[in-house]
Amino acid sequence: MLPFTDWILEKLALEKTLFRTMAVSSLGLLLLALLFRSLTDAFGMCHRFYVNCQRLRCFPEPPRRNWLLGHLNLARSTEEGLQDAAQLTAQYGRICVWWFGPWVPILRLFHPETIGPVLRESAAVAPKDKLFYGFLKPWLGDGLLLSGGKKWGRHRRMLTPAFHFDILKPYMKFFNQSTDIMHVKPDFSDSKDIFCRDFLPCLLLTSRLIMCSRKSSDYIAAILELSNLVVLRQHALIHHFDWLYYLSTNGRRFRRACDTVHRFTANVIQERRRAHSRLGDDAWLKSKQGKTVDFIDVLLLAKDEEGRHLSDADIAAEADTFMFEGHDTTASGLSWVLYNLARHPNYQDQCREEIQNLLRGRETEEIEWEDLSQMPFTTMCIKESLRLHPPVTAISRRCTEDVKLPDGKIIPKGNICLVSIFGTHHNPAVWPEPEVYNPHRFEPKALQNQSPLAFVPFSAGPRNCIGQNFAMSELKVALALTLLRFVVRLDESQAVRRLPALILRAENGLWLQVEPVRTQQ
């Protein structure tokens, strides 16, 4: 190091002393160590990448357009993109490797035998992947959708009682009332009028059940804006960098909408917490006997095994998460099942006859809790619609350990697995004639030889949708009352093009014609 040290001192025009010599030598050694460490890390990264690529060679891979983009330019959130996904599923059957640029491999899974091992793994082994879910974090925080590890397990155990059947039963009156509100809108009240698939009452209902608040129009508008902004960000690669995104117009809109949502939720929580403090939990529970307990109250009362409550930040995250996951998925499911029944009037007539027979002789047109199990064909129609048009088309996991598939192949740890719900539901090896709407697929006899993972609109395994019973109950009530009162037909002048965003939508909405049933008689 001495020649180097002398050269440095000479260039800096410094007199050579013992201290300066030792300082420059130490600095040089530090720089060499950092360089060596960087080279070692780079070599290790390249070696791990090479080993991972070798281990992935057992899985088929579609042709890439080029080495830089990989398959990135083939992924499209359009009708054509869904058709490509169906074609990919038919061609490769179970699994294939998809490259997100030159460095990030993604395993696309679209068969019960391949999605099962990943979905059944614990939240620690197969957590949510940040590449696809990270953009939701500033909005939803550490709710059930995005949290992992011990925190996710603790919250899941604490929230599960909120979706018990005994808790859901009192909500039936809200399901009926919200559907009544939807039916008295001008779009429904006028004969042969046309309506779009954006059913705002589904969102209003969810808001009431969570917050018990009717004054939430700004909150609802902010949720709708945040959903759209997240999708726009996913498709703009330059906005994947936070510092660039928040300098953009959309980034500033995202911050403002987040502030609106968080401020509204915080105010509701503080107001409800003050009410609990005034009465005390025991007295408050007595005051609620025979009444509906909303989600915020359940969160405030929830305790873990050690008797600890959720913090205000945790309650806000769970409330915002449920608003996001609960409103748009239900609206999408209801819209697509009405669309499918409009395309198949014979099935629609069967559903209507089943509901008319169920409610015959009653004074009021109201679906009760016991009725939900007494409409088997209507339920089959809902499930077939969820198969054909799943509200959530895919979910992602990043494996922290190797995952073994039934055929002996191994998914190496560290890789992203994209569980294609749409692909599984449209896999001809799983569902014959997958593009045909056929509710009879869900007859008990037909399902005897079918894998339970062939139908996963609410995911499966330990991280399945905690609110699936809530969603199915709401769908049954809304569909039953709609078909009881209206005949639904297609508007042939409007082409339908699917749009797989955060939720499966239609590009220009699903436009249908409705006519009161009484005019048919």
TrEMBL record:
UniProt xrefs under PROSITE patterns: CYTOCHROME_P450
CC annotations in GO: endoplasmic reticulum membrane
Cofactor: heme
Record bears the keyword Cell inner membrane: no
UniProt signal peptide: none
Molecular functions per Gene Ontology: heme binding; iron ion binding; monooxygenase activity; oxidoreductase activity, acting on paired donors, with incorporation or reduction of molecular oxygen
Cell location: Endoplasmic reticulum membrane
Binding site for heme: C465
Keyword Transmembrane helix: no
Family: Belongs to the cytochrome P450 family.
Protein name: Cytochrome P450 family 4 subfamily F member 22
